Amino acid sequence: MLENSDKVVLLSKYHIIDYKKLIKKGDFSKLIAITNPLTFPNVNIEISEKQNEIIFVGRLDYASKRVDRVLKVWRKLQEYNKNWSLTIVGDGQDRSRLEQLSKKLCLERITFVGHTDPKQYYQRAKILLMTSNFEGTPMVIPEAMAYGVTPIIMNSFAGVNDIIKNGYNGLLTKPFSTKDMINSIQLLIDNQNKLNEISNNATNIIKNIENNILLSEWNKIIG
Description:
By secondary structure, this protein is an alpha/beta fold. It has nine helices and eight strands. The strands form two sheets. It has a six-stranded parallel beta sheet, sandwiched between helices. Strands 1-2 form a two-stranded parallel ribbon. Strand 3, helix 2 (67-80) and strand 4 form a beta-alpha-beta unit. The chain is globular. It starts with 7 loop residues before the first strand and ends with a helix.
């Protein structure tokens, strides 16, 4: 790919680092990072109107998404946060398996809503969880941030560091550690002022992203 292309466009500057490690040698000046453009308009959200709701949004696929970790996190959180709920937005081959696991773990205040437009859940939820084994540059994170949803993400893929500044517009937890994620979520639940601050920062960062800047980068390549 590198030898036979004029440019190789990756979604994150961190992907360039991984690419170099994989290829070892070549004309790395061909590598360029351009993130995905936003595909939704800026929205005005009142944080005070949000519910005490945690959401997962995505494909219910065990191999990559590992939504079972979300359920295990919730098993611990539900004991101490009776006025909070969990909503799983999405569908996939492992939905039935996850619903069975939910019953096995005796989970309460959890809802599987299937494949649907997540907008209404972004509007009302306060926290988004992502527990994937791997990702590229998932659009669900900036989508949620645009609606003032605070992302709490397992730091298991390089591209997340392009989106999240830990402690400022979201929280990054240790890869694959449900214990660390539980502690991070509880920290924000116990400190609503900090949760609101991160939420506002997340929204403001998305509002300041200009698609025109991204398009100008593409024009430099193909123009």
